[in-house]
Automatic annotation (TrEMBL):
Pfam families in UniProt: TetR_C_11, TetR_N
Keywords per UniProt: DNA-binding, Transcription, Transcription regulation
DNA-binding region: 36-55
UniProt-recorded name of the protein: TetR family transcriptional regulator
InterPro entries reported in the protein's UniProt record: Homeodomain-like_sf, HTH-type_TetR-like_transc_reg, HTH_TetR, Tet_transcr_reg_TetR-rel_C_sf, TetR_C
GO molecular function: DNA-binding transcription factor activity; transcription cis-regulatory region binding
PANTHER family according to UniProt: HTH-TYPE TRANSCRIPTIONAL REGULATOR RUTR, TETR-FAMILY TRANSCRIPTIONAL REGULATOR
Xref: Gene3D superfamilies: Homeodomain-like, Tetracycline Repressor, domain 2
Keyword DNA-binding: yes
Record organism: Amycolatopsis vancoresmycina DSM 44592
Domain HTH tetR-type: 13-73
Length: 197
């Protein structure tokens, strides 16, 4: 019978949380290239070995922390209407992209991907895959309710929902006015061919 791990062998959630926060702050302040395991450990108040017990490398640690942060912010909602679901989903996307730390981290991760082709492939899949699955489930519910056409081009629809927000907030670095989400939802409903949209 296997012995239950104790002491240092147990990954304590509060330590993992402290490390996670330290990674986000270090990414925001130093960027991907200058972030070091030593600095993360110091900021978190832990030994470097505490990091290596959780992640095998700096790249894996960053990918894991950014993925967990990002996937947790995908709005998995079911308001009973496409309009309501779109509003919640788009607002959650705005909140994710404008998060005080993440909004400073994302441009650096995009730049790192440009500097090192292939770097972002895994990260895009780990973040984009689950987030798109949530969006697809929302659209499939709307199809089942008769709000969207059955032959909806799912890939294009998912792009249409996220791209304007990313373009506005990240590329143009423009603000989302108070009525932006409502205007975007109305536009998306028309673009998707929603019944009554």
């Amino acid at each position: 019978m296997a012995r239950t791990p104790t002491g240092a062998a147990v990954l304590q959630p509060e330590v993992t949380q402290a490390i996670t926060e330290a990674v986000m702050w270090e990414l925001a302040e130093q960027g991907y290239g200058r972030l070091s395991m030593e600095a993360v450990a110091k900021r978190a108040g832990v030994s470097k070995s505490a990091l290596y017990r959780r992640w095998t490398s700096k790249a894996y640690m960053i990918a894991s922390v950014v993925t967990d942060f990002s996937v947790a912010r995908a709005a998995d909602v079911n308001t009973g209407s496409l309009r309501g679901d779109l509003r919640e989903t788009m607002q959650a996307l705005i909140d994710w992209l404008t998060h005080p730390l993440f909004s400073r981290i994302l441009p650096d991760l995009v730049a790192e991907d440009a500097r090192n082709p292939g770097y972002g492939d895994g990260l895009r899949g780990a973040i984009g895959g689950p987030r798109r699955e949530v969006g697809e489930a929302m659209l499939r519910r709307a199809i089942a309710r008769g709000e969207l056409p059955e032959d909806l081009d799912m890939e294009l629809a998912l792009d249409v929902l996220a791209a304007p927000i990313y373009w506005r907030l990240v590329v143009r670095q423009a603000e989302a006015e108070p009525d932006y989400v409502d205007r975007l939802v109305a536009y998306a409903l028309r673009a998707l061919g929603a019944q009554g949209g």
